[in-house]
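Sample pair:
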Amino acid sequence: MTTRPEVAPTPPMGWNSWDCYGTTVTEAEVLANAEFMAEHMLHAGWDTVVVDIQWYEPTARAGGYNDSPPVELDGYGRQVPAVNRFPSAAAGAGFGPLADAVHALGLKLGVHVMRGIPRRAVELDLPVLGTSSTARDVADTSSVCSWNPDNYGLDHSHPGAQAYYDSQVAQLVAWGVDLIKADDMLAPYHDAEIAAYARAIERAVASPARGGRPVVLSLSPGTHLSTAHLPHLRENATMWRVSDDLWDRWEDVRAQFTRMARWAPHQRPGAWADADMLPLGRIGIRAERGEDRPSRLTGDEQRTLLTLWCVSRSPLMMGGDLPTTDPGTIAMLTHRDLIELLQHSTDGQEVLREGDLVVWTARGTSGGADGARYVAVFWTGDEPTTVRLPASSVGLPTVPGSRGTELWTGDDVTTTPAQGPTTSQAELVLDVPAHGVRLVRADHPGTTSQH
């Protein structure tokens, strides 16, 4: 059993290069996003920049993967940054200089890895560090990713398989990496690979050079991921994706309601179900999918997405290029009350779903929101509507006059007498836009209006 250090007391928040740069991100682009985050977003809790897939591929391109990519490796079959894209990695420095620059900004660095061992390492039959084994000995060449050509899986009946992960992770940690996004782990569910990777992180973090500073393990992608895996996930990982890639399409956002309703009751510090990165702001610059564009989600759809992610306490990983994203999107991402909901709430859950109406509630746990009641009223229909909810259905007092604030607009909200014969009962009446949300916080749910 892996015993990992406790990490991520609140859901991780960061930026990931995938939605805007796909496989092609450069060191200059990572640093530009890090500098923007440090200046404009760190105060709100955004503290991690993640270099996504194929940072070791010098010929990486937008729109897909090259066949038999000439990935760059060291003498032990471990990926090293492509120096034409990450020039500070020259002379064996790896991600060390980039990590130092990111850390100097008060941020953390994350990198993406694929499950297993590079196929090129197997072709070259490179040695596995610290063993008499080679890449051919430890690879499982029957285990391949269906969508990426980089790696074979590992044969974990061979002790050299664990040694390979130990050496790979030790190198990442020595460079100063704080988060590892391990891909192709969950569909199908590769329990031996996950446990071996977590074990490698545990050993690397325990090294004197690391000083016990934790490393977040993020697993992807969770297509058809079942809560039956929850004990194993909690034992080994910090966060795990619950879906395939999410893009700037309303149907992708709407599908997450069902998934997060399944996973939100299980959220807890250090073990977070992840609804995937946020396709907001400027995306598609050199991405796998689509052209350079602002997010195609409407403003109401974006507020719906952010509210669902926060009330369900999903990690937040921004996918758009921060320096060229519009100020309105940055303002949404740093909305103080929304971040308070994400970081300091509990019992986030779906309490009602009828047709196009979906209602979530949560309870505040600290600071000014301690004891607050959050009510998120989502309308997934294509036309705006007026929603009338019995106050008792969302945990508010049944006597009319309970006060709250709609957090996206700042408007005051007061429960009113219900229509019909039982006017002594309170109801919450909200106008909700198409594909939109109204997020109400009742700071003192027992307080009623004097008017």
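The longest strand covers residues 345-354.
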